[in-house]
Amino acid sequence: MMNQPLSIRFLLACLLLSLGRLAGAQPPGSPPVVSPQVNTDNTVTFRLLAPAAKDVKLNAQFEKAPVAMTKDARGVWSVTTGPVKPDMYPYSFTVDGISVADPKNSSIFPNEGFQNSLVEITGSPPLVHTIQNVPHGTVSYQFYTSPELGQRPVVVYTPPGYETDTKTTYPVLYLLHGTTDLEETWTKVGRANIILDNLISQGKAKPMVIVMPYGRAFPVISKSSGSLRNWDNLQAFKKDFLGNLMPFVEKNYRVRKDKDSRAIAGFSGGGGETLYLGLNNPDLFSWVCGFAPGMLKEEFERNNATAFANPALTNQRLKLFWIGVGKEDMLYPVINDYLKVLDDKKIKHETLISDGGHTWMNCKLYLSTIAQKLFR
Amino acid sequence: MMNQPLSIRFLLACLLLSLGRLAGAQPPGSPPVVSPQVNTDNTVTFRLLAPAAKDVKLNAQFEKAPVAMTKDARGVWSVTTGPVKPDMYPYSFTVDGISVADPKNSSIFPNEGFQNSLVEITGSPPLVHTIQNVPHGTVSYQFYTSPELGQRPVVVYTPPGYETDTKTTYPVLYLLHGTTDLEETWTKVGRANIILDNLISQGKAKPMVIVMPYGRAFPVISKSSGSLRNWDNLQAFKKDFLGNLMPFVEKNYRVRKDKDSRAIAGFSGGGGETLYLGLNNPDLFSWVCGFAPGMLKEEFERNNATAFANPALTNQRLKLFWIGVGKEDMLYPVINDYLKVLDDKKIKHETLISDGGHTWMNCKLYLSTIAQKLFR
């Protein structure tokens, strides 16, 4: 609301310094550092103001290795890469050995273990996860209560029309994030809401509610002691999921409560949770989808006990058992072993063996694939 | 879902490296770096793994100046500060001149201009912004459409009971963030939803809908050319606010549409927008609240034209005209000048001159103060 170029620049610099105490803030009067800048040829220019740094590299998930950046006379490091295949990618900078998110980019990867920024290269025609002018669903942040774990965050997607079609009930997809991710990662990095908005508007997916809880009982490894991890965490999460989360959802949302109207899917550590919860609770879920699901070979029998005990009944109970994984994913070998066990036991399943690795680019592909299969 | 300590540690390290390419990730087997750690005496320990760094400082908004951190043999820099007065504070580290958020803390300050982390020191009894086991409202992320500006994000708080009391209509508070903030800043840093949950549960605030749009027409200064700034931005934002946002809210939410049921409030740059929109649209808003509102003395007349033209009518129209500012705020002198002009013109107003500066700690105080006055 101020139009004096000099005074406003000075005042804004004061505000930034006061609010953020931003080391490396540009002095008043210097041109702004813009990063990332997606160019018309789909190359991307990244910039970082770091006059004192000796070495700055770009780590982008569309590059196979870190990319060196070069410094100009002002101390702005930059590099232009690509053309980049349209998608949304995580990236960070390494500044003298320290990993930092891009301070000029407010689009952040929600995570407990690292901090990355996100860059979107839009395509033409728009990709399935591109925000478009179609009817949008609502993404709601809620809390539910666990007697043991306290106030638990969950993000819920309701499809377009949910608020007005108040007689309609919907099928529900429980969608779990990976280890170190957060309840926001599926919307902010996986664009689950946008993918469903677009597929629903094209008639390619059934309107559904998507429930994205914080997918661990206890905070990630960096915050918890050894005894709170892994099997203990999975048991406590199962208890919370079945005892608190599902009742909260079924009380507060107009979701259908039959097993054919319930799906569960998840990525990485959340994919492991998905298979464990889905395959061992056949009365609850008819649709079970693992996206590069985390697993260990020595735990196949334990984690798949119900399904392995009666493959014929498992096949009868499940409408879809789906596994997606990238050929470059470090979990590909163990998942491949798992798929062979499923074949041996004649447990029906569909697979999508994609290009790429253990990435959220693949997560978006997998979600947009299974969303078109669910509840049909 | 894995309980082999060595293999899972290795696999998780691989996952972290694959997902985040996290420079400085701790090697498998080393104890986790926990940061921040709030101790029982309300001191706080901050830690950062940065073996190659030469100088690391803590910048915390409860400290007057940066605090030196010291390095241990593993390369973990740390410092313990306080005891700290219970509140939620932004902080960052400066590593060899580069400002970084805390990579072990997933609680991030949403902002276009800098990246800070948040640390909460809870009090006893709990503070007004502490998440408690009370009925919670819903925080919804929505898009509305601007013909000129495209798909626009807005965050909407609906109070507990909104979904079930479907005959009830609610008063509405439009709540604007500061320059460089985002539509999420009022919930994630200002805890607007939690403050209202707590005040409503205690009967101290009326149930209300709170609308928190992205508070600019154009992205913040760092992303826009000179011509898109300031007055042009304010005019374009006003057009979007009145022409797109308010109609979207009134169509999609059960809000009352009389001026006595509409309030507007905002912080810093959003406080300037608040006064401009609120005081020049007296048929729309009966409640106008500025939190350290951004203003320039040479713009007093222009930005307050309607109110200054007829003080008596202004007093008649407004049920509350409220200004809060901290004595250490760099805007305190100009706001003080503005308050003298209001006195001279006999325009009625309430003030809260608090301790502290241009901070979100004060924003929480101001919101919790005015929330108890609105719609009474």
UniProtKB/TrEMBL annotation, chains A, B:
Keyword Cytoplasm: no
Keyword annotations from UniProtKB, A to Z: Hydrolase, Signal
A Pfam entry, by short name: Esterase
Cytoplasm in keyword set: no
Signal peptide boundaries: 1-25
Organism superkingdom: Bacteria
Molecular function terms from GO: hydrolase activity
PANTHER family for the chain: DIACYLGLYCEROL ACYLTRANSFERASE_MYCOLYLTRANSFERASE AG85A (PTHR48098:SF1), ENTEROCHELIN ESTERASE-RELATED (PTHR48098)
Protein name: Alpha/beta hydrolase-fold protein
